Amino acid sequence: MKKIFLALAIGVMSLLALNPQTATLEELMQIKGIGEVKARAILDYRKKHKIKSIEDLKQVPGIGEELAKNIYKDIKNATPKKATKSSTAKKTKSPANATLVESKVKASKKTASTATKKAETKAKATKTAVKKEAKTAQATAKKATSTATKKVETKAKATKTAVKKEATKAIKKATTTEATKK
Fold first, then answer.
1. In 3D, which of 66, 65, 70 has the Cα closest to residue 20?
2. 181 lies in some domain
3. Which residues of the chain are under the pLDDT cut of 50?
4. Residues 40, 62 contacting (CB under 8 angstroms)
5. Is the CB of residue 28 less than 8 Å from the CB of residue 63?
6. Quick check: is 100 in a domain?
7. Could you tell me the residue range of the domain that residue 125 belongs to?
8. pLDDT, tens digit, for every residue of 73-104?
9. Is residue 173 part of a domain?
10. Cα-Cα-Cα-Cα dihedral sign, residues 69, 28, 31, 13
11. Coil, strand, or helix at residue 26?
């Protein structure tokens, strides 16, 4: 719940400013003079270059001096200002702004929901992997202990057999030596 609230808060704050470097196709199309073709041209251009100024915007195919100024003006007007009763009333009365705010809130909710689901899935996968690794390590340790125990038992058995042989030899030798003395 906290994650969703945080994502919504960030989304609402970002609604107040339009950044041509991060704006979506729909957001770019809200700017006067930009249709789908020019919005796509901006998206294509920024895949290879950063857009930091009007000069950068002029480098986008199909955008000249006047359109670049218009885009800059819309960006400048979208920057957050201190809210007053009149500016707040104007913003809420404008259907275009209300629709834009609504779509951005929906997008922020969707992004937050998707991010939360991805994080939960990743955490679950990590937990499963750790459990599997722990079981494997436990099995390996058990197998190593079993193998070591078998080796020690085999060595002990071989030593016991060798000791019996030596004892048998010693007894035979002692018996033979005693019989020869008589």
1. 70
2. no
3. 5-16, 79-93
4. no
5. no
6. yes
7. 2-130
8. 776 555 443 434 444 434 444 555 667 777 77
9. no
10. negative
11. helix
